[in-house]
Amino acid sequence: MRTSVAIIGAGPAGLLLSHLLAGEGIESVVLESRSREYVEQRQRAGILEHGTAETLRKSGAGERMDREGLVHEGIELRFAGDGHRIDFAALAGRSVTVYAQTEVVKDLIALRLAAGGDVLFDAEAYEIVGVETDSPSVRYRHGGAEQELHADVVVAADGFHGIGRPTIPDSVLRTASREYPYAWLGITAQVPPSTDELIYCRHERGFALHSMRSALVSRLYLQVPADDDAANWSDEQVWNELDRRFEKRGWSLRHGPITEKSVTPMRSFVAEPMRYGQLFLAGDAAHIVPPTGAKGLNLAAADVTLLADALIEWYRSKDTAMLDAYPETALRRVWRAQQFSYFMTSMLHRDPAMDEYGARLQIAELDYVARSTAAATSLAENYTGLPRKSFQVP
Ligand code: APR
Ligand code: PHB
Q1: Dist. CA 13 → ligand 1 center (Å)
Q2: How many Å lie between the centroid of ligand 1 and the Cα of residue 162?
Q3: S-S: 98 plus which of 70, 184, 234, 322, CB 3.0-4.6 Å?
Q4: What is the value of pTM for the model shown?
Q5: 124 C-alpha to ligand 2 centroid (Å)
Q6: For residue 101, what are the domain limits?
Q7: 82 part of a folded domain
C-alpha cells in the first residue's frame, strides 16, 4: 500500500493531523493498534485551549464541541480554606472549552471515516524503515497478515509507548524527564458539578481537582501515592477525602454514583529531536506533561497543526523551510508547557518529602498568584494557551 503521509496512532494527534491534511487534499493512512471501541472509550483530560478549539472549529471538526462543550472564563484556586478566582477573560482575553478528549477523538474518527479516510484499527505498526531515504515505510500487522505502508513521510503520533521515538538512533536521541512521588485518582460521577468553574485545590492532605463533563456529570481527582491502586479506594472513602480537601465555609460537594475510577501516573518527559530524516514525532510520542496544567492534548494539537501546515507547504511548493523549522518551533511550545505544568504541579501537590519551609513557599506562591495581577495574568495566558506567534523561530 502507498500513501503520502503514513501516520502511526489514532489518538488526538494522529487523527487531527490526518483530518487537517485531508482538508488540503493530502492523502494519509492512520494505523492504530487498538480497536475503535477501545480508542473511543479511553478516559483522558478535557480542557481545550482557545487555539485548540479554534483549530477544530476552523477545520470543520468543532460542531459538536460548540454544541456540547462548556466555555469557561476562569478557574478557582482554593487553598487555606478559601477560593480565589483567576479571570481568564479579563486577564488574557481568552477562554477555554471543557470538552473531553474522548469526544474529540470520536468526532475526528467519524469525520475521517465519513470522508472516506483510511483509519485502520487493530493495525499494529512494528517497524519503521528507510527514514533516512525519500521513501520510508511502516511495517504493520493487520487481519493476521504482515503488510507494508509506503509513504513520503512517516509521522509517529503513537504516544509514549510507541515505536516512533525508539526508531531514532540512541546516538541522536536526547531525553529529559522528572518523576513525581504521586499520581491522580480520577473519578467520573453522575452528579451535577458543585461549581461553575474548575477548582484546583491545595490542601495539607494533598491536591484535589473538581472538573466536569456536562451539566449532569462531574469529574474529580485526588492526589494519591504514586503506586496506589483504584481498588484501594471505596466510593465512600473517595467522597470523604474529597470533602476534606475541598472544605470551604458555606460550600459543599455534591455526591453521587461513581461510574469510573482509575489512577493516572504523573510524569514530565521531553525527547529531542522531533524529526529524524523523514520521520516526525508528534504529541505524547515526544513529550509528556503532568495533567495539572491541562496541556497534554493541547500540545498534541499544537504539534500537528504546525506539522500539517509545514507538510501542506512542502507538497504545494516543495519548500522545506517550514518542515525544517518544525522540531525547533514545536519544542519552544513544548518547553513552555513543561515549565507551566511543572509550576502548577509543584505549587499544588503535597510532596511526601516536603518540609514546613516547602509548604510555606507553596502558600506564598498561591497567595501571590491570587493577589497579583501580573502573576495571575501569567497563569491565565499559559492556561488558555499562548498564541502561535510567540513560538515562531526567527
Ligand atoms: N502501532 C499502531 N498504533 C500505536 C502503536 C503502534 N505500534 N503504538 C501506539 N499506538 C497508538 C495507541 O494505541 C494510541 O491510540 O497510538 C495512539 C497514541 O495516542 P495517544 O496516547 O492519545 O497520544 P496523542 O495522540 O499524542 O495524544 C496526546 O493523550 O495521553 C494523552 O495527555 C495526553 O492528552 C494527551 C494526548
Ligand atoms: C479533566 O477534566 O479531566 C481535567 C481538567 C483539568 C486538568 C486535568 C484534567 O488540569
Answers
A1: 8
A2: 7
A3: 70
A4: 0.97
A5: 29
A6: 5-72+97-176+267-349
A7: no
- Three-state secondary-structure class, residue 171: coil
Q: What is the pLDDT of residue 393?
A: 77
d(CA 143, CA 167): 24
Mean pLDDT over 85-114 rounds to 98
- CA–CA gap between residue 286 and residue 275 (Å, rounded): 10
Mean pLDDT of the chain: 97
| Ligand 1 atom with minimal separation from the 31 CA | 2
Mutate to test the pocket of ligand 1, among 32, 298, 299 (most ligand atoms within 8 A of CB): 32
* β-strand pairing of 118-120 with 28-31: parallel
Query: Residue 16: which CATH number?
Result: 3.50.50.60
Flag whether pLDDT at 127 surpasses 80: yes
User: Per the domain annotation, does 183 fall within a domain?
Assistant: no
User: In total, how many domains does the chain have?
Assistant: 1
The residues, ordered by sequence, that sit 6+ positions from 178 with a Cβ below 8 Å of its Cβ are: 267, 268, 269, 342
Write the single-letter amino acid at 299: L
User: DSSP label at 87?
Assistant: E
Residue of 42, 43, 47, 295 with the most ligand 2 atoms within 8 Å of its CB, for mutation: 47
Which residues are paired to 248 by β-bridges?
Answer: 251
What pLDDT sits at residue 392?
84
Cell numbers given for 365: 506562591
Nearest atom within ligand 1 for CA of residue 298: 34
Answer left, alpha or beta for residue 224, where phi above 0 means left and psi between -120 and 50 means alpha.
beta
Ligand 1 pocket residue status of 44, Cβ below 6 Å: yes
Within a domain: 111: yes
**From the CA of 158, how far away is ligand 1's center (Å)?**
4
